Amino acid sequence: MITSPRPTNEALGRYYLSDDYVSHAKKSKGLFDKVYKTSRLYTLRWKLNLVKENLRSKGNSSTILDFGCGTGEFLQTCKQNGFVTTGVEPSDIARAHAAELTAGKVHSTLEEVEGSFQVITLWHVLEHVPDLNQKIEQLKSKLEKDGIMFIAVPNHQSYDARTYQERWAGYDVPRHLWHFSEPTMSQLLKKHGLTLEKIIPMKLDAFYVSMLSEKHSSGRSSIGGFIQGFVNGFRSNALAKPNEYSSLIYLVRK
């Protein structure tokens, strides 16, 4: 599915300047932000282990490109664990923080990046990209022969998406321009000649997205909404059929 109407490419940037856009925020201001930041500590380690487990070439200095690296926490985690890291982040504010955090170069566009990589990661990024097909082809060209790409996106066929409908936080309009399900993502990858190796659920996302959806529904944060969101997140994971979790990671190779 697509967001329509959508902002112009020139206007998109201002929707990432809001204090409510927590993934680019450096401070935790409210209950939901604190939950996000706390769960991120666990998720960073989990993502790192996921990358290590699926690397075919396990050298001491594997190369990784994090496309849409945000404020750089995942890049920092990888660098601390021996990876040679490269980041791409279009937001000036987030990119400056990522460069400071990693003490390295973070590019503003993919066109600036040279060379190829054993690992490319897109953690909740593809849904933001205006030029979807062109960007997938560019990323594919930068993936080494035995490399692997991790694409994490929300799944609009999940239980929590069906529960909250138009108030589901996973839609996040107008920042999210594309909305994926397992069938459509599989079709998209096949179109670009990418081999889908496996699909992994991001179970923590169901809790956070449901809590944020409760906030969207009521217009404010509350303990009651927090609890109801947690309950719906638990239900989403418990009732999910294969590949119908709140967010899915697609592991792909050339």
From TrEMBL:
This is Methyltransferase domain-containing protein. The keyword Protease does not apply. It comes from the Bacteria. One of its GO terms (biological process) is methylation. PANTHER family: PUTATIVE (AFU_ORTHOLOGUE AFUA_2G14390)-RELATED, TRANS-ACONITATE 2-METHYLTRANSFERASE-RELATED. CDD domains: AdoMet_MTases. Keywords: Methyltransferase, Transferase. It holds the Pfam family Methyltransf_23. One of its GO terms (molecular function) is methyltransferase activity.
